[in-house]
What does this fold into?
Amino acid sequence: MIVDELVKFSNYYGKNSALVLAGGGNTSAKKNGFMYVKGSGTQLATITAEKFVKVKLSKIEDIFRKKYPDNDAAREAMVLEDLMDSRCPGEEHKRPSVETMLHAIFEQTFVLHLHPALVNGLTCGKGGETLAKEILGEKFIWVDACKPGYILSKICFDKMAEYRNKYSEPCDMILLQNHGIFIAADSVKALDDKLNSVMSALKSRVKVQPDFTPVAEDEAYIGELKNILQGSVCQIACRQAEIFTRDEESASVLLKPFTPDHIVYCKAYPLFIGKGDNVAQAVSQYSKKFGFNPRVIVAEGHGVFCCGADEKQSNTVRALFEDAMKIAVYTGSFGGVLHMSGELTDFIVNWEVESYRSKQN
It folds into this structure.
């Protein structure tokens, strides 16, 4: 059965930490006018058949034909309602992935969406689109950073039609600036071959690798943060973290988000604490400004610290922020760092769909 194939390759990719972290990424499969897509808040590594949501493709197609309000909140609420209406009978207790509409626009049977650090070194690089064409050829769609949800889906829908008119064949790859990659194929093997080809091509262009050589933890600083935050704190104790925390200028590349996943799991903005700053006061000021404690603290001369209500959360933050550090290094091979804009960051922070996803993890 097609769902069995879907579960198998979802688990396969989901267990590869170089490709998938926490609840990131999603997959789908189409058959006979229906699509099975990953449920929001689930994880590819452990997903089972019951966690996929069966939707009717004709209902998704109707969304692209419908006129929605320009107001962000009103538009996204209406789109979400229509997306939920695409679920088949018996699926009403499930919520389709945030990117369901993007999966639907591919003509191929299987779709894989990932956010690997290596790919995002390219998509978060200032020379991303130009270098992508140089490295991967012309046959893909590049989409500049834009509001997710309906806006992104409609842009991709229109670009898909343009691509088919130009090449007389369906597109099988989309690169999303400050986000990740979509790959599609009619077989799981073809999907894997395509992904491996892309990853190999990008790897060959990387000039500097992130240095995760272990270093000693700053136990005193960890203890101080635990006392202040009254939660779990762990350190990214490696050479790369030392390099980034030499001074504020070195740390600046880590102080804004690269992708939506970093916002979901690490919050939008880390707290930078300079040498000589009062740690408790810096944390207090951050908490008053944002309404919550920092998830990531970048401390000059001390290192990078990941915080959470419990050990599970702080470890998830660490995994995602290590990913951000890798991207920061990889962008050096693709034109330099390009963060998400403040406007786009604010939209995602307040977007109901990402708010829902963050609560599931």
User: Anything to note?
Assistant: The longest helix spans residues 311-330. The chain has a mean pLDDT of 96. The chain has 16 helices and eleven strands. Residues 91 and 323 are 34 Å apart (CA to CA).
